[in-house]
Amino acid sequence: MKKIPYTLIAAALGVALTHSGFAQQKGGPGGDRKGPPEPEELAPALIKEFDKDGDSKLSEAELIAALKDMQRRMPPPPRGGR
Question: What is the pLDDT of residues 11-24, one digit of tens each?
């Protein structure tokens, strides 16, 4: 099955995770920071959670599962116009 590079995974999910549970991390001197995780932090966490075949890579099917999970975690978009 086709394998997806870590950088593509990080780029695709970095945007999706901005509002998810992954978005809050320990920061510098002030404590918690908000924002998307760094790719170096995100990739291992995603592989640990979604790599079902244990090859330390996300296949296309595993990446789709990760994206669907992240989409489910995201808050709904705001309603209405301005």
Answer: 566 655 554 455 44
